[in-house]
């Protein structure tokens, strides 16, 4: 029994020693990680700066010496970020973009951007930006570039244009220019759009709302007038139709038709007569003749 306990104790110490040894090796000599689908990793030598090439790209299970090397992982599926004034959407900091229009109106906008990092461009991307977390690049370099483009292109439009029929054109131009600047570093802009409405100064916003309400009231009044006119034309058409029908009916009533209708009425009266003369008959003098039965003869 004592031998069994001694053997179990030695086995536990050995297992504990292996665990400690494995942790030491994992932190100092040998470590590993997994690059999941949709991500691309690059294995970087910390001790020798030989640059980053395609040979450094790694996927799946990766073993490395944590003292000598580090593995940086980037997502290669579509990323979406928002830059807004709100502290509850996107970053807690105010990341709205602002610019002045051609007519010197200051405007602030919240935007959403979607982009894709190409897997074959990951080494060049890391070499240029040395960003261990792509989110830092998104809220740094990409936002600064987008802000500069918005300022440059927004100054070519008046506020009425950018708040109206040319809003889509403005956003498309910004997206195209942003994509042109990020393509060389392996980033493709998928979408660039507004989150909410443009924010001009409050006094201008009130004026815009008043103008919009006036236009809506004018359209509503015009529609009501058109509806009233249509209803009036409908009533006139109905009246004209009834008048035409009455004229057609009157023109069809000639003397022969009237005589025929009188005969039909007389025939109907005769058919209903029971053969008895009326009890009261008016005379020609205007008096009344009473039909009095004769008294019975007494025998």
From TrEMBL:
SUPFAM superfamilies, per database record: Band 7/SPFH domain
**Annotated Pfam families:** Band_7
Signal peptide span = none
Start and end of every Band domain? 34-232
Membrane topology qualifier? Single-pass membrane protein
Q: Which InterPro entries match?
A: Band_7, Band_7/SPFH_dom_sf, Prohibitin
| Gene Ontology CC annotation, any one | membrane
Give its localization: Membrane
Q: What is this protein called?
A: Band 7 domain-containing protein
**Species per Swiss-Prot/TrEMBL record:** Chromobacterium sinusclupearum
């Amino acid at each position: 029994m004592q031998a069994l306990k001694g053997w179990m104790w030695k086995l536990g110490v050995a297992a504990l020693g292996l665990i400690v040894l494995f942790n030491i090796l994992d932190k100092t000599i040998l470590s590993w990680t997994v690059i999941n689908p949709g991500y691309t990793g690059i294995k970087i030598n910390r001790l020798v700066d030989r640059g980053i090439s395609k040979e450094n790209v790694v996927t799946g299970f990766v073993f490395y010496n944590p003292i000598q090397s580090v593995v940086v992982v980037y997502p290669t599926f579509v990323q979406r970020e928002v830059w807004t004034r709100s502290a509850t959407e996107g970053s807690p900091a105010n990341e709205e973009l602002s610019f002045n229009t051609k007519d010197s109106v200051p405007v602030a906008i919240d935007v959403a951007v979607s982009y894709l990092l190409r897997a074959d461009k990951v080494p060049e991307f890391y070499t240029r930006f040395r960003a261990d977390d792509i989110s830092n690049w998104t809220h740094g370099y990409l936002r600064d570039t987008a802000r500069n483009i918005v300022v440059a292109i927004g100054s070519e439009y008046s506020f009425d244009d950018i708040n109206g029929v040319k809003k889509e054109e403005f956003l498309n131009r910004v997206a195209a220019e942003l994509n042109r600047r990020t393509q060389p570093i392996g980033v493709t802009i998928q979408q660039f759009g507004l989150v909410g409405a443009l924010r001009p100064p409050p006094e201008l916003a009130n004026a815009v709302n008043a103008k919009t309400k006036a236009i809506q009231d004018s359209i509503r009044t015009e529609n009501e007038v058109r509806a009233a006119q249509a209803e009036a034309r409908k009533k006139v058409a109905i009246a004209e139709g009834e008048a035409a029908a009455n004229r057609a009916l009157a023109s069809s009533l000639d003397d022969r038709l009237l005589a025929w209708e009188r005969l039909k009425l007389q025939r109907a009266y005769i058919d209903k007569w029971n053969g008895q003369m009326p009890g009261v008959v008016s005379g020609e003098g205007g008096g009344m003749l009473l039909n009095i039965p004769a008294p019975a003869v007494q025998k």
